[in-house]
């Protein structure tokens, strides 16, 4: 990857590689030089705006769809996730041609466009959330922006900083939104979120400089797109070419499908089914999110001690336990216990990413990570829809009065054997059991415990991203605030 330096007087870029040095003049339409800090501000403002609406969205969702709240929540988030999965590669390919700033602008604008509709027309609000999935790929463009302005050695830590900023914005904002909603009104929260979204768009227009040099891009906007690169299913079609990668992708599918479904409904479930009040949900988000980030700091040590494969299995066992606990639990303390397990189990996906990277050669890192990411993106669309449909099929109501009325009418809920509070969580727990069985047969990677003892040639085969994950821990993520699924937004 070329190393980029900036010449301030001429607003030009010097792209330096091993063989040549050339100047690439770019138009700097922002403030200062392109940097990771510009990307951090964009991410923080967008998700802070949506985080403020976490509690109001739950209330509006229940008011708009009182009889099928969980079903409609799953369908809205499912459509959004599937559209994001389909559009992300295309938008990424287009940003390589037209530049990052333009697509940062339209992704933030269209992702935040539904916010003011919340107090105008709730049906249009949820319809726009679904459709906005086409452009709800800000993270993809931000990561491309970060890649433009960092060296290979700096990139993993820069990505980790972006993920940590995202998590921090959602740890703070739900509690603030809940407090403002209780003290004032939903209208004030929506107005504040809209103002922050407008500020984000204005910041991109005025302050964010273009990170992709003009001469690095094709000469005209009419340049043909590499459609193979823009095909969302391209990576998935390559899954079967490697037995180990195939088993990893099956593990991701079986474990992340229920995880994505859980992300999409857990806040709604806690408030409407488990009688959490708005502030309790906000505190729950903050505590579990902070705990999950803290836990993942120790992942590097854990992988050195027990290895990547056993770390994956440990994470899957924790995920299975918390899903069953969510499914059977009927008391608030049980939800808190399940939330703590969810934080501990958040090590699974980073461990899978590290294992896949260790298994792959340096020149195939992008391809294999793309396979796993593609599988995960597909789950982000299917998981919420699956949970919503299961809630609907098992006739899970929001209060005891509805349930009593249904039972009196002789509805299908008369069978006692499936009357657990959260049937989708139970179903997800059984899927994770299958994921554990698959993971048990994943072959060990020889030498995975001792990266520092490898020969220089072997070290070159392991990407710098993996070295960071083994020695310093993975990028922080939260089991309840996920950048891909945007659970409650």
From TrEMBL:
Gene Ontology CC terms: membrane
Coiled-coil region: none
Name of this chain's protein: Hippocampus abundant transcript 1 protein isoform X2
Protein's UniProt keywords contain Membrane: yes
Regions that span the bilayer: 39-58, 70-90, 102-118, 124-146, 158-181, 187-208, 245-269, 281-303, 310-328, 334-356, 377-394, 425-445
Topological relation to the membrane, as annotated: Multi-pass membrane protein
Native species: Glossina fuscipes
PROSITE patterns cross-referenced by the UniProt entry: MFS (PS50850), SUGAR_TRANSPORT_1 (PS00216)
Main location, first listed in the record: membrane
Subcellular location: Membrane
Gene3D superfamilies (UniProt xref): MFS general substrate transporter like domains
Pfam families noted in UniProt: MFS_1
Residue ranges of every copy of the Major facilitator superfamily (MFS) profile domain listed in the record: 35-446
Keyword set includes Transmembrane: yes
Source taxon at top rank: Eukaryota
Keyword field: Membrane, Transmembrane, Transmembrane helix, Transport
InterPro entries with a match to the protein in the record: MFS (IPR011701), MFS_dom (IPR020846), MFS_trans_sf (IPR036259), Sugar_transporter_CS (IPR005829), Tet-R_TetA/multi-R_MdtG-like (IPR001958)
GO molecular function: transmembrane transporter activity
């Amino acid at each position: 990857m070329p190393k980029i330096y900036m010449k301030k007087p001429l607003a030009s870029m010097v792209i330096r590689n091993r063989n040549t040095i050339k100047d690439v003049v770019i138009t700097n339409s922002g403030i200062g030089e392109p940097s990771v800090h510009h990307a951090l501000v964009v991410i923080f403002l967008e998700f802070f705006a949506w985080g403020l609406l976490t509690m109001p969205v739950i209330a509006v969702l229940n008011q708009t769809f009182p009889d099928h709240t969980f079903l409609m929540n799953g369908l809205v988030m499912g459509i959004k996730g599937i559209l994001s999965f389909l559009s992300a590669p295309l938008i990424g390919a287009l940003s390589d041609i037209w530049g990052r700033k333009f697509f940062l602008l339209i992704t933030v604008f269209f992702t935040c466009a539904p916010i003011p509709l919340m107090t105008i027309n709730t049906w249009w609000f949820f319809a726009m959330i679904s459709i906005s999935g086409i452009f709800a790929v800000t993270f993809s463009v931000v990561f491309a922006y970060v890649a433009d302005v960092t060296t290979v050695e700096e990139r993993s830590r820069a990505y980790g900083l972006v993920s940590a900023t995202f998590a921090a914005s959602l740890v703070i904002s739900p509690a603030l939104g809940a407090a403002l909603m209780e003290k004032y009104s939903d209208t004030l929260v929506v107005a504040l979120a809209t103002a922050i979204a407008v500020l984000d768009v204005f910041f991109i227009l005025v302050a964010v400089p273009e990170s992709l040099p003009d001469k690095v891009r094709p000469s005209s906007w009419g340049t043909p797109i590499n459609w193979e690169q823009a095909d969302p299913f391209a990576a998935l079609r390559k899954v079967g070419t490697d037995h180990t990668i195939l088993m990893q992708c099956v593990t991701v599918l079986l474990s992340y499908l229920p995880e994505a479904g859980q992300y999409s409904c857990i806040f709604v479930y806690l408030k409407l089914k488990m009688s959490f009040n708005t502030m309790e949900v906000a505190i729950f988000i903050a505590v579990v999110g902070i705990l999950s980030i803290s836990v993942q700091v120790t992942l590097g040590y854990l992988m050195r001690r027990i290895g990547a494969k056993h770390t994956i299995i440990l994470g899957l066992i924790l995920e299975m336990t918390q899903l069953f606990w969510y499914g059977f639990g009927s008391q608030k303390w049980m939800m808190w216990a399940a939330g703590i397990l969810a934080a501990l189990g958040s090590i699974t996906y980073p461990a899978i990413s590290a294992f896949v990277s260790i298994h792959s050669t340096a020149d195939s890192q992008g391809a294999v990570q793309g396979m796993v990411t593609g599988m995960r993106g597909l789950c982000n669309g299917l998981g919420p829809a699956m949970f919503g449909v299961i809630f609907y099929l098992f006739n899970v109501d929001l209060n005891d009065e509805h349930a009593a009325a249904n039972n009196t009418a002789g509805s299908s809920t008369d069978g006692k054997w499936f009357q657990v509070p959260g049937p989708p969580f139970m179903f997800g727990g059984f899927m994770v059991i299958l994921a554990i069985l698959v993971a048990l047969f994943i072959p060990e990677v020889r030498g995975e415990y001792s990266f520092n003892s490898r020969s220089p040639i072997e070290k070159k085969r392991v990407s710098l991203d993996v070295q960071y994950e083994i020695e310093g821990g993975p990028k922080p993520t939260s089991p309840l605030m996920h950048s891909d699924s945007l659970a409650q937004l």
